[in-house]
Amino acid sequence: MRGEARERVRDILLQNRLFFPTRLGFNDPFDCRIPLSWDGATLDEMERKLLDVYRRNPPKGWNGSIEEFVREQRANGSIAELARSNLGPIVTERRLDNLRVLCLCERPDDILMWSHYASNHEGICLEFNVIKESYFSGAVRVIYADDYPKLKVTMGTKELANGMVLTKAKHWAYESEWRVLCVDEPGLQDFPKECLSGVILGCKISEENRKPIREWLSQRATFATLYSAVKSQDKFAVRIENTEDIGPPVM
Asked: What are phi and psi for residue 90, nearest 5 degrees?
């Protein structure tokens, strides 16, 4: 870990906060980009959805009321065309670009996860306790599928979010992912200090990186367990071993 990555780890351990990225930084081009359908939607449903969306994103060049604009579109017979050509991008692209997603996983011993997300086993894995007062308690399990879920623009916000943000291709099932979602919030989100329960050192971590992590843990106000990922001697696997419990100095 060097430079920005090193500073990010220091910030997590000492400031108790995590960065929630947007989908723009995801490594899967299908993630949070599932197409929406208008199949089966009535003109009334289209009108209600247009009203809902245009109240948040007024149409360019229109100075009257939103209700008047939508009524005019319905009167001249263009509401369906307007909805299909214009509403989908507003509903998905703009709102999803502002959605922030914290990605978590169940398994600390998956060697692919270490290779893909922890600098080829030279980085670390963080262990968190879930307490009621934290955003971790709102984590939702990701669903893995071969086909896109059938998402309609007329669905409610929660139903759409579950299908769009919590469904990924089966190829990613090894991640056993859980997600925490937040909308229109800053990227850095604080968590209660008691939530961080441990840090697992990758099996290839250098002493240059091991030493500051231990020092940062000793400066925390709560105890955390330092673990090590160790290569198995008889199979393609790593095992997680407890190294020591580290906490604030005894006064």
From this structure: -65, -45
**Cα 230–236–240 angle (5° rounding)?**
25
Nearest to 83 by CA among 40, 33, 29: 40
Integer Rg of the chain from CA: 23
pLDDT digits (tens, 9 = 90+) for 133-160: 899 999 999 999 999 998 887 777 778 8
- In this predicted model, what pLDDT tens digit does every residue of 100-126 receive, in sequence order? 999 999 999 999 999 999 999 999 999
**Which pair of tokens denotes residue 234?**
């008889």
Q: Give the separation between CA 181 and CA 16, rounded to whole angstroms.
A: 18
Contact 100, 93 (CB under 8 A): no
What angle is formed at CA 246 by the lines to CA 243 and CA 247, rounded to 5 degrees? 170
Note if the pTM is more than 0.85: no
